[in-house]
Amino acid sequence: MSNVTIPVGPQHPALKEPASFKITINGERIERADVRLGYNHRGVEKACEERNYIQDIYLIERVCGICSHSHSTAFVLAVEEIAAIEVPKRAFYIRTIIAELERIHSHLLWLGVAGHEIGFDTLLMYSWRDREIVMDILNMLTGNRVNYGINTIGGVRRDITPKQAQEILCGIDKLEERTRYYIELATEEVTLINRLSGVGFLSHEDALHLGAIGPTGRGSAVDRDIRRDDPYLSYPELQFKIVTDDHCDVYGRTLVRVGELMESYGMIRQLLQNIPEGPISVKAPRKIPAGRAFSRYEAPRGEDVHYIQANGTDMPERVKLRAPTLANVQSVARMLENSYLADVPIVVASIDPCFSCTDRMISLRTDGPGEKLMSWPELHAFSLDWNRKNRGIDFTNLNKRLIEKKV
Amino acid sequence: MATQLFYLLIFPGFLFLSAFGLFAEYADRKIYARMQNRIGPPWFQPLADFIKLLGKETIIPESADRRIFLLMPVFALTAAVTSFLYIPMWDTHALVSFNGDAIVVLYLLTIPTVTFFLGGWSSNSMYSTIGAVRSITQLFAYEVPLFMGILAPSLLAGTWSLSEISAFYNAHSWYWLVNLPGLAIALIAVQGKLEKVPFDIPEAETEIVGGTFTEYSGRLLALLRMALDVEMVVVASLLAAVFLPFGLGYAPITGFIIYLIKVFFIIFLMALVRTVLARLRIEQMVNFCWKYLAPAGLLQLVVCLFVKGVMLQ
């Protein structure tokens, strides 16, 4: 078979969100991979500039469905820095607990997705069943399974009672036992190892060069974690180690993620043990003084970066956010080189992509190769013409004719 | 003539086999779901799916080879149904039998795979083409171990007729134990034939959407799925007849129940295999089949020859 180009995306069963991978294959081997994003631009940044800070928290929380707390915390931290608000320690602890619970639910979700991508549905069903434990805990603490809405400027909106703390510990114990089982599975199950090891190779140098972050980078022995390198919230007070792995492949990334799960359990135990008494929030001004701040946050998928510029009103002048997928998506093309078509889904999934969070802007280029640009009237005319030619249906002035028919 | 038609069309022919196939699909899905800690579908789900598909629009791609595209699902179902006639169920006699029908059954069971290849190839879509190439590549890998696994018992029995094989093992009660490794080999190999995990490479949905079946819809897809269901029953019956040839020759009702138990046991084993394994890559699959499965099949042949030459004298 000579070279053929296979479209994986924009719509494809392996992708949960629209993104396009044009894979050129020779037989089963990949010759080249082109990555194209930009199918899900939502204009979040602009929308933020037209709302006040409190509204923005809830909008930003909806940037990502999985790491929603990450984005809202990064935003809130930046705003608090500009306004120089002294946030109570207890609020920081509660935010950190939610952050680590979110990491647990995100990594368990990833484990299931990875299982599904390599045709191991049993792993999907098992890990998503166990994920329900952490979802229930989050639901109990915040009232929501996702998009918790616990952050506010100056603190958090809900306290953790001793009874809830007990229930968290109970759930964590169960999850830890299950995670041990998954670690055992990942190190012993032959077909799983066959499908993961050696796949999506990203050398340490390439990972540094392409700026891979989060578990993707740590799976290639890039020892970076914002929680340790640029600590925020209550992380300076916690004992934890950064999990890295030198397999440099999907297997390494899997081990990093399950390892991080174990670390998160330990962190939540420490947090619940040392949580100080006191208020959970302070009153914050509606208008944030002029200034700018930059906040970094280690989300489950890597580093979230938020930049906020305030101008003294109750609305930010500029909000810029970067989701981790943007930093990692470059490395996918490298990982796909010389691998097999069958590995495309798991390699793409191995960076734990979140394309909808990533799309910040689209630029349409009229120069260069590619499909022709069409304006709205042109597209409309094209669609009418196509339907008349291919389907024999005339949609011209459809509304008008429908109204006439009614009359 | 009327009884012949009854045999062919109603029992144990087309109608019974279709119903049995749908029920086997239900059993397979339910067992799979329960082992994955899910509830699973209700008993009528495969039938409901079938009826729903029948009511859907059948879309034939413009660039497809229309004749082959339309014919292949029918061929697949026909081949699978036909092969059932030669397999003994609760008795040591199949509906039709002659010396050499074991080969014919294996040949007929290969036809659905070839039709999947042709159907996928002729639908002229990228995903289907790759699925088609994969299904034919896979065929060359699992077919040889499967043949060796199934033909070893017939070597021991000294006949190429499935009915006579079960008669032989029925008469020599404990010899079927010699063939148990062959059952394991055949069980793994038929996962490839039925395109189930770990060998569901031709229709790996996360890679190539629907694989061979991507462009099929409506009635044609219903037929293809029915063909796969029937094939599953036929394969399970074949394995039961060849490898579990005990409890034959009872009264029809008791015998039939024993037969059902055997078939569902085989289906249970197949569901178990696909629960505990991940999908392999095509080159890993070919490697595995030729490196491990085929030598194991050879070993089974040697064991059978040894038993026949030394112990049966």
Keywords:
heterodimer, A: 407 residues, Cytochrome-c3 Hydrogenase, chain B, 3-stranded antiparallel sheet, 50% helix, B: mainly alpha, 12 helices, 72% helix
Question: What do you see in this structure?
Answer:
Chain A has 407 residues and is an alpha+beta fold. Chain A has helices at 44-49, 53-61, 68-83, 89-117, 121-142, 162-188, 190-196, 204-209, 214-218, 226-229, 250-274, 324-336, 344-350, 355-358, 376-390, 398-406; strands at residues 3-8, 20-26, 29-36, 151-152, 155-156, 291-299, 302-310, 316-322. In chain A, the strands form 3 sheets. In chain A, strands 1-2-3 form a 3-stranded antiparallel β-sheet. Chain A has a 3-stranded antiparallel β-sheet with strand order 6-7-8. A two-stranded antiparallel ribbon of chain A has the order 4-5. In chain A, strand 2 (20-26) and strand 3 (29-36) form a beta hairpin. The termini of chain A are far apart. The mean pLDDT of chain A is 86. Chain B has 313 residues and is mostly helical. Chain B has one domain (28-311). In chain B, 72% of the residues lie in helices and 0% in strands. Chain B is built from 12 helices and no strands. Chain B has helices spanning 2-10, 14-35, 45-55, 66-84, 101-122, 126-157, 162-171, 180-193, 205-208, 218-243, 252-276, 282-311. In chain B, helix 2 packs across helix 10 and helix 6 packs parallel to helix 12 (282-311). The longest helix of chain B has 32 residues, at 126-157. The model of chain B has no long low-confidence stretch (mean pLDDT 85). The interface between A and B is medium-sized, with 31 and 29 residues.
Short summary of the structure?
The complex is a heterodimer of chains A (407) and B (313). With 407 residues, chain A is of the alpha+beta class. Chain A has helices at residues 44-49, 53-61, 68-83, 89-117, 121-142, 162-188, 190-196, 204-209, 214-218, 226-229, 250-274, 324-336, 344-350, 355-358, 376-390, 398-406, and strands at 3-8, 20-26, 29-36, 151-152, 155-156, 291-299, 302-310, 316-322.
